[in-house]
Amino acid sequence: MKPWIAFAIVSMIFAGFTSVIAKLGLAGISGELGLAVRTVFVTLIVLAFAFATVPASQLGTLTGANYFWLGLSGITTSLSWIFYYKALKDGEVSTIALIDKGSVVVAVLLAFVILKEQITPRVMVGAAFMLTGILIIARK
Asked: 62: phi > 0 → left, psi -120 to 50 → alpha, else beta; which?
C-alpha cells in the first residue's frame, strides 16, 4: 500500500471520531464556543507537528502563491468548520457527517475544472452513489 493511501485511511478514521467527540464536547455550550476551543487545540498541535518535522530552511521557500492559496484554503476551512459546528450543535452526527462528506463530490468537480484532473467513469459512478446516499439519509 502506498503511504498516502495509509495516511488517507488514518485521516478517515480520525475524522469519524472527530464528529462524535465534538458532539459530546458541545453539551451545554454554543457551537461557536466549541469550535473556538477546538481550533486552539488544532492550532497548537499542528504548529508543534510542523516545528518537529519541517526543516527551518524550508520557510524560505514559501512564495506569494503559497501564502495566497493556503490562506484561501484556511478561509474556506474556517467557513466549513463554522457551519459544520452550527449544524452539529442541533443535528444528528450521522446525517451531518454524511452531508459534509458530500464535499468529496464538490472536490472532484473542482479538481476537474481547476486542476484539469480526469474524471473517470469509476469516479462518476462513485460520486453518483455518494450523492444518492446523501439524499437517502438526509431525507427523513
From this structure: beta
Asked whether the beta carbons of 15 and 93 are under 8 A apart, the reply is no
pTM of the model: 0.83
Distance CA 26, CA 23 (A): 5
The overall longest dimension of the chain from CA atoms, in Å, is 54
- The Cβ of residue 65 has, within 10 Å, a number of other Cβ atoms equal to 8
Give the angle subtended at the CA of 40 by the CAs of 39 and 43, to the nearest 5°: 80
Number of other CB atoms surrounding residue 25 within 10 Å? 15
pLDDT (tens digit per residue) in 104-119? 999 999 999 999 999 9
